[in-house]
Amino acid sequence: MTNRQVRLKARPAGIPQAEHFEIVDASVPAPREGQILVRNIYLSVEPAMRGWVSAVANYSEPVAIGAVMRSFAVGRVVESRHPDYRAGEFVTGMFGWQDYAAVDAEAVSRKVPDDGLPISTALGILGLNGLTAYFGLIDAGSPRAGQTVVVSTAAGAVGSCVGQIAKILGCRTVGIAGGPAKVRQCLEEFGYDAALDYKAADLDGALARACPQGVDVYFDNTAGAISDTVLSQLAIGARVVICGTASIASWDPPPQGPRVERHLLVKRARMQGIVIFDYAPRFAEGLAALSAWVREGRIRYREDILEGIEAAPGAIAGLYRGENQGKRLIRIAAEKP
Amino acid sequence: MTNRQVRLKARPAGIPQAEHFEIVDASVPAPREGQILVRNIYLSVEPAMRGWVSAVANYSEPVAIGAVMRSFAVGRVVESRHPDYRAGEFVTGMFGWQDYAAVDAEAVSRKVPDDGLPISTALGILGLNGLTAYFGLIDAGSPRAGQTVVVSTAAGAVGSCVGQIAKILGCRTVGIAGGPAKVRQCLEEFGYDAALDYKAADLDGALARACPQGVDVYFDNTAGAISDTVLSQLAIGARVVICGTASIASWDPPPQGPRVERHLLVKRARMQGIVIFDYAPRFAEGLAALSAWVREGRIRYREDILEGIEAAPGAIAGLYRGENQGKRLIRIAAEKP
Question: Does residue A71 sit in helix, strand or coil?
Fold first, then answer.
């Protein structure tokens, strides 16, 4: 029985490509006292991984060259040497891009209940995506009913959830996405009041028509030209939530753009960066709200499931090309043994 | 008896220069029922005036061509047709760059008590400068004792007050100013723990040495290259208060600079613009604190007093050249009639 691992082979300057990783056959580790052995079933692929392998200062230590790629995963406990876990339970946590992980309890985010919702949701709508949407919007965005909330990458795993939560809170929601298919998805699947195609001409004019009173909350997953347009149309007292910078290919050196100070000053607006891990003490609150909304059908989500660990090395670059629809996962084993 | 008025003659593209104004002899207005007639003694000159005469969207209507230049002033009531005011009282408010103003009570910010502090303080340390420092720092900056507060235009009318309030609150204060004289003033007069000359080489290195734990609060009066340096050295959870953009000659079109999103994201930092008029309901609180600190000698201030209304047209441009030390005022009459 081998343990296939995806290891970081070289440090990318920008977006990690397939050639920055290698797949290696290792042996299945034996859990030490206090550890559990997890058989990973779904591996996560996320934009933040670019930061995790970057040498530039970040909110976490960079993944070392030769180390297994850091990743959330959901899997089944196959052996437990920890009193809180039993073989057969599903767990999610930082288990890496590999078949098997022997981990301390600290690496486990939570047990995944066998309650009818797919276990894959633990990596998306009931994982960091949903929690990022929930806390980013509610805590940093401070939306109030009747206000206008604009979301970039509006059909994405985080963005689609932001739009739906904002709608539940009574806001008017405007999504920005790339291409007619995603725009249609925003309107038909995620219930945005308006959806704009940033690849079409005159985003500025389209945004002005969709937000005649200005933008009260901008949940920003892209930075770049889309944000430049939105920032020029903020309402007084606007809140800009900086969640991701998907449109920026490299931060080394930092790209230039129009300075934002005058927008913030004239509109008494604030821009705030969020990192979801800071909200860990409140995750239970977020999961309770999100689970209820998913069960009630008030929040819809999409998953983009790749098959086999061989798909992992190229999967981040694909995200940045926008080829996925919804949360990208890699299925590497069957849910039932 | 004539009423000399400084009127806006032409709309400047960038910083208003002397040629954008003209001095005109008008007649002294008669106050209507409910109005007071004020003899202005000190006129204010402030960086924000650039915005007030700009055609670009702003927090207030632009001053019309041919109109008296909008300005705060402090003066003496010479005739009152309003029950709350009596001739001989000092008042401050939006009275314009002119000898005499007949105004409604709404134009009066407050009466200036004859309590031993110079009436000119109503336009500076006990006026919008002090209040901007107080609310900008305390409300938007949220400083905590032991944290590092960095201030740009640190020896200026607002900046010097920010540094001294931060010190009173138990913060470590680092001032950024232009040239050795202002740096010395920061250290000797305003009590900064460290002061850096942005005109000297290697501001980045000097800032890093002055802020080994990073910058917790940045009170920004400049934008531009100074801010680019400070933003690259924020501490986790930093707050950036956008108060002014003195280093930007024109916002039309907006100048380019390094994008800020990654700093905000990685450091979970926030940038927030403030406009002091939003705090009007709390001005009494701010004035009480500032007056007490001035009387106790815990806050020092400087005034840069020009003589005669003829100095007004060129006075804004001089501010942007940095030729003043402290709050710039124009004395156009004696305090005692």
Answer: coil
CA distance A322 to A324: 6
Query: In angstroms, rounded to a whole number, what is the distance separating the alpha carbons of residues A54 and B329?
Result: 52
Alpha carbon of B204: minimum distance to chain A alpha carbons (Å): 16
Q: What is the pTM of this model?
A: 0.88
Q: Using CB atoms, which residue from B248, B251, B270 is nearest to A271? A: B270
Question: What pLDDT, on a 0 to 100 scale, did the predictor assign at position B253?
Answer: 85
pLDDT at B235: 98
- The pLDDT-based confidence of A57 (bands split at 50, 70, 90) is low
> Contact B259/A263, CB-based, under 8 Å?
no
Chain A partners within 8 Å of B274 (Cβ): 265, 268
* Residue A88 CB coordination number (10 Å): 11
Residue A70: the pLDDT is 96
Q: Which residues of A touch B251 (CB under 8 A)?
A: 262
Question: Do B157 and B124 touch, CB atoms closer than 8 A?
Answer: yes
CA separation for the pair A232, A215 (Å, rounded): 9
Contact B264 A272 (CB under 8 A): yes
pLDDT number for residue A243: 95
pLDDT in tens, A295-323: 999 999 999 999 999 999 999 999 988 78
CB contact under 8 A, A263 and B256: no
Which residues are bridge partners to B31 per DSSP?
Answer: none
Chain B: give the shortest CA distance to residue A328, in Å: 22
Contacts of B59 in chain A (CB under 8 A): 266, 268
- CB B274 to CB A266 under 8 A? no
- For an interface test with B, which of A58, A219, A247, A259 has the most B Cβ atoms less than 10 Å from its Cβ? A259
Give the class (CATH, top level) of B128-277: alpha beta
The string of DSSP codes covering A208-250 is HHH-TT-EEEEEES--HHHHHHHHTTEEEEEEEEE---TT-S-
φ, ψ for residue A22, nearest 5 deg: -140, 150
The confidence band for A135, taking pLDDT boundaries of 50, 70 and 90, is: very high
Cα–Cα distance list, A235 to A60, A66, A77, A267, B261 (Å): 34, 48, 50, 6, 20
Fold adopted by B2-124+301-331: Quinone Oxidoreductase; Chain A, domain 1 (3.90.180)
Cβ–Cβ < 8 Å for B259, B281: no
Structure tokens at A42: 């779904």
Q: Splitting chain B (337 residues) into consecutive groups of 10 residues, what average pLDDT does each group show?
A: 96 94 97 98 93 76 95 97 97 97 96 91 95 97 98 94 98 96 96 97 97 98 95 98 88 90 95 95 95 96 96 95 88 88
Residue ranges of domains in chain A: 2-124+302-331, 128-277
Give the tens place of pLDDT for each residue, A158-175: 999 999 999 999 999 999
Q: Spell out the residues 6+ positions from residue A14 whose beta carbon is closer than 8 angstroms to its own.
A: A50, A249, A250
The beta-carbon neighbor of B264 closest among A242, A254, A278 is A242
Q: Which CATH number is A2-124+302-331's, of 3.40.50.12280, 3.40.1190.10, 3.90.180.10, 3.40.50.720?
A: 3.90.180.10
Q: Between chains, do A261 and B245 touch, taking CB under 8 Å as contact?
A: yes
